[in-house]
Amino acid sequence: MIETLLIAVILASSFPVGYLLAYLCKEELVTGRKWFKMISWACLALILVLLFVYRDYSVILTLTYIAVVSLISVHKSFDKKFVKIKKQLVL
């Protein structure tokens, strides 16, 4: 019971951490969008493989945490109000 509650609290903390990371790194969200997508897809694929093969839940929970944080970064990179792209002067 306590272990399940602790897991839920840790995974729930990935949402504010994802938003905090997106807030602190606004400039890198648009340029790093493809990397965030790759990280999230790789984590999700590894989660599926490890669920059937390895069954080590600490690794699976860590990958889930990373996937949630990167998916929030991808989501916030499409938000025009959140990310204001500065136009660079090209000489």
Q: What secondary-structure arrangement, pairings included, does this model have?
A:
Layout: H1 2-12, H2 14-24, H3 26-31, H4 33-53, H5 57-77
Helix pairs in contact: 2-5, 4-5
Task: Please summarize what this structure is.
The chain has 91 residues and is an all-alpha fold. The chain contains five helices and no strands. The protein has one domain.
Structural class: mainly alpha
Question: Helix tally?
Answer: 5
Order of helices and strands: HHHHH
Instruction: Give the termini separation.
Output: 62 Å
The major beta sheet can be summarized as:
none
How does this model look, in words?
With 91 residues, this protein is mainly α. The protein has one domain. It is built from five helices and no strands. It starts with a helix and ends in a 14-residue tail after the last helix. The model has no long low-confidence stretch (mean pLDDT 87).
Spell out the key features of this protein:
91 residues, single chain, mainly alpha, 5 helices
